[in-house]
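Field guide to reading this record: the first block holds the primary sequence, the second block holds the structure written as discrete tokens, and the final block holds curator observations. Each block starts with its own label. This record concerns Glyoxalase-like domain-containing protein, catalogued under organism Actinoplanes italicus.

BLOCK 1 — SEQUENCE
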Amino acid sequence: MPSRLFALRVDANRPERLAEFWAGILGWDRDGVLISPPDGDGFRIRFVPERGPKVVANLMHFDLTSTTPADQEESVARAVTLGARRIDIGQGPDAEHVVLADPEGNEFDIIEPGNRFLAGCGFIGALASDGSQRVGYFWAEALGWPLVWDQDEETAIQSPGGGTKITWGGPPYSPRPQWLRWTYELIPPIGGAPDAEAARLVALGATRLGADEHGILLADPDGNDFRLLTGASSS
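BLOCK 2 — STRUCTURE
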């Protein structure tokens, strides 16, 4: 069995404040700096002290879905009330989606109703990422999630159980920051040894970077760092 996506790790200047914001937007449960879906399905989001300031757009962002125009407006209003702000990233006046930034400047979209690609994906329709076709193939194998889109160097994967899609937009690529503020935390398969799973990920194209008290540090084929958690770090 492959690794499981345990959490999205988000750098934050004020981790508890940002956890409170996203728990409010998503309607998730919060335990300090960790927020989780109420039904227990899918990944968590863990907010940690930042490694460096945000200077360019993130290489990942959420596409949040809506069911009706009124629902989209309500989601935007709730986000703004909680501390988000509208931003212009060149989307143009005719864009049907709304682009926002959370209290620490992390970009996210609230997508217009009727988007067929995100139909049935839930409120977090997609974790939209900047990245190559190769990295999409890597993560499909790493997580055991099938490819649900593979065209013009754009890829997307989705858990066999459904839910949020992870997408990669292909070229042209955005400027890379020194530190990635959004990264993945994986846990090994049940009964699997972390070192053996790390070796499998390296065989798929990852690079082993080292280790810390939380787990094994790796980078995917595009150079995006991620962590394979061990022991109590995955609780």
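BLOCK 3 — OBSERVATIONS
The radius of gyration is 17 Å.
The CA atoms of residues 11 and 50 lie 4 Å apart.
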